[in-house]
Amino acid sequence: MYFYLYSQTTEVAGVVQVTPRHKVTRMEIEMIVEIPQGSRNKYEMDHETGAIWLDRTLFTATQYPLDYGFFPHTLGEDGDPLDALILLPQPTFPGCHMWARPIGVFWMTDEKGPDAKVLCVPSRDARYAHYRDLSDAPDFLLAEIANFFEVYKLIEPNKESTVGGWNGAAEAEKEIAAAIARYVP
């Protein structure tokens, strides 16, 4: 199975033509970090300019359990690029690009609707070579991530989140494929 990510479009006589930027092989996809692990600040990237904006500081005394970002050239059901978290030995920085391998997906909803979060490992880091599915991740880490998304909007006005649970790599790949199909440049 291959995923194609697109970056160049042209319009000829009212017909939009999309040129593949690169082919992403199974279990590897480009990810961009918006929020480093340990941050209470929620940053968002302007997808047209690439500028990183401070959206808000979390109202709860929680912090992001992993680096958090998105897969470019995807569209989640909430109208934003599909969200991703990645296990790393050290936090990175907003705007950092990397190759990621999905190992699971966390299902939740928020005030905008369904909001899946794909859990990944760095696909080109030997420390994570044995991570292929959700069962390879520590149970406590999965519980910590679930708890974060259950409470991180708890006292924030006009925000809500409801957690649904975890599925493995196969479901994560399906969600990524659906998000790529939804994306229109």
From TrEMBL:
GO BP field: phosphate-containing compound metabolic process
A cellular component annotation (GO) from this entry: cytoplasm
This protein's record includes keyword Metal-binding: yes
Listed InterPro entries: Pyrophosphatase, Pyrophosphatase_sf
Signal peptide bounds: none
Molecular functions (GO terms): inorganic diphosphate phosphatase activity; magnesium ion binding
EC number(s) stated in the UniProt entry for this protein: 3.6.1.1
Catalytic reaction(s) noted: diphosphate + H2O = 2 phosphate + H(+)
Swiss-Prot/TrEMBL keywords: Cytoplasm, Hydrolase, Magnesium, Metal-binding
Cofactor(s) needed by this chain: Mg(2+)
HAMAP family: Inorganic_PPase (MF_00209)
Protein's UniProt name: Inorganic pyrophosphatase
